[in-house]
Amino acid sequence: MSYHHGDLRQAVLQAAAERIAADGVAALNLRSLARDLGVAHTAPRHHFGDKRGVLTALAAQGYRQMAERIAVQRGGDLLDAGVAYVQFAVEHPGHFAVMFRPDLVDESEPELQEAVGALGRSLIAAVAAFRGEPVAEASSGDPREQSGTLAAWSIAHGLAHLMLAGVAAPAEGESRAEFIRRTLAHIAV
Amino acid sequence: MSYHHGDLRQAVLQAAAERIAADGVAALNLRSLARDLGVAHTAPRHHFGDKRGVLTALAAQGYRQMAERIAVQRGGDLLDAGVAYVQFAVEHPGHFAVMFRPDLVDESEPELQEAVGALGRSLIAAVAAFRGEPVAEASSGDPREQSGTLAAWSIAHGLAHLMLAGVAAPAEGESRAEFIRRTLAHIAV
DNA sequence: GTGAAGAACTTTCCAATGGAAAGATAGATC
DNA sequence: GATCTATCTTTCCATTGGAAAGTTCTTCAC
């Protein structure tokens, strides 16, 4: 056996995401994953501590990537941000499956908290930009404003889940982006 | 040991729901559950086949109970139905955690399919009643073709998830029902 | 260069879990 | 009261996550 895989940490995360995407979180097992990567089954422990550590790192990666994706949409419609949210979830089911899952991850992990914060800022900025407000004022405590943001988040989050559950899908001849946009358009912020 | 527990099937479902509600689906294990019920760890297999069978039965129970709950709201606002949806999810996290999870259940199970159908009919009826349409005509179209219905479902489903994830919560001095209603009110069907 | 020192990985061991198989008991039916 | 069937137990096994200790590689001071 050759020591030093090279970038085992990243390899584990990628493999885990693929397997979760294919068979769900419940089916993920570190042993067969390590087998495929050609390392001992305890090798990932050095990088992640335990299985929960793997899922935590995967969730953090998901939050970061989603935050980036939404930030890129800036300048666009609020709907664009929503579409980006749902698209990310559908295209990265392995990541999305461990995000917003306090039971699967270690919420005290600083890396995770920072990643969650980054996504939160992206979402708030998207809503603020839509309203034409300076981002700095966006986090004022107006309950109506917050409920609008939460409503927008909810519909995107819910649609993502329903699509992943196989309950919702684009009509024939309709692109996924069009379908998502058409559905999210029913929100009134 | 005394044979014949009485109603082991129901006891297992209830215990499973409680445990999932407390620690999440991943933490559920049939062995300690059976231990608490005072039966051998293989006893539930007779009623459910395997672990997936337990989760499938739990999901079916969840769909049925949610369908009932929403049907009771008939005559009320569409928002009432939405509030009922979210309330059920928050009050029965053990059931909701296995609903809409194709990776956890056996979707070919007839009991599950029937239960899903019942919930679908309740949702369609709720939207139809809101629109003032006869229920009979409402079910002519597949719900997934009607973006308004899907949007309403999405926002309720998403809010339920966000609340369970600890991301969203009522403001101080606000009841849960008020909070849910206020958030869902942003939908335009 | 060389020799720690630490990082990355392996080997070995263990407890717990889900499940298979076969046997025991209780309730129902006649 | 004998038999039949549903319900539950006992025993056994493969797989999994994890603990502990050892091995190999890299880095870096000198």
From TrEMBL, chains A, B:
Keywords: DNA-binding, Transcription, Transcription regulation. The keyword Magnesium does not apply. The keyword rRNA-binding does not apply. Residues 6-66 form the HTH tetR-type domain. Gene3D superfamilies: Tetracycline Repressor, domain 2 (1.10.357.10). It holds the Pfam family TetR_C_33. It comes from the Bacteria. Residues 29-48 bind DNA. InterPro entries: Homeodomain-like_sf (IPR009057), HTH_TetR (IPR001647), MT1864/Rv1816-like_C (IPR025996), Tet_transcr_reg_TetR-rel_C_sf (IPR036271). This is TetR/AcrR family transcriptional regulator. It comes from Nocardioides dubius.
